[in-house]
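Researcher: I'm preparing a figure for a lab meeting and need a structural model of a single chain. I don't have an experimental structure, so a prediction will have to do for now. The sequence is pasted below. Please return the structure as C-alpha cells so I can convert it later.
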Amino acid sequence: MDTNVTAIDKPARKAPPAPRNGVDTPKLFATIGAVAGQPSLAQFRFRAQSRWVSGTQTRSTIAGFFGVGSEMQHATPFEAAADHPTVLCGDDSAPAPVEWVLHALAACLTAGIANISSARGVSLQSVECSIEGDIDLQGILGLSDKVRNGFQAIRVNYKVTGDAPSEKLRQIVDQARARSAVFDILTGHVPITIEVDA
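Model: Understood. Here is the structure written out cell by cell.
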C-alpha cells in the first residue's frame, strides 16, 4: 500500500491592492466584485430638488439617492446655485448651468483617472484639466432653428503626471473617457421626460 501523499500547490492568493491616490482601492475592487456577483446592486437613481430664486437664479439641494438596493442619504445635503452672467441677463451670482455641465464632465473624468490609475498600480503626482465649450446664442435666443441650443463643441485638455510612462497615462485617460457616465450622458441620447403640475 502506497502511503505517499502528493501535495497540490494552490495558486498564491493575490494580496488586495493598497489604497493609492486617495482611492480606497480594496473597496473599489470589493464593489466591482459585489456588483459582478449581484448585478441588481448596480441600479442607482440620483436626484436633485431645485427651486427658482429670482431672475435666472436657481438653487438645488442634493440629499439622497437610491443605490445598492435601498434609499441612501449623503453625509450632509449639498446645495448648488446657478445663475447667468450679467451679459446674459443674470446677476452673475453663481456659475451658469452650462458651466456646471463642464464641471460635471471634468469631475467625472478626473475621478475615473484616479480610480483607474489606482487599480492599475499607478501613483499620480498631479492631474489638471482645462475644459471649454462653445455655444452660439442664436439657438437659445430663438433666432435660428439651424443652430443647436447647447454646446457645439467641448474641448478637454489634461496634464497628468505619475510614475508611469506617458503612453500608459494616456491610456488611463482614454479608459476614464470610455467609462465616464457624464461623457456618456453628453454624447448619447438620454431620454428626458418633463412633466408639469401647474
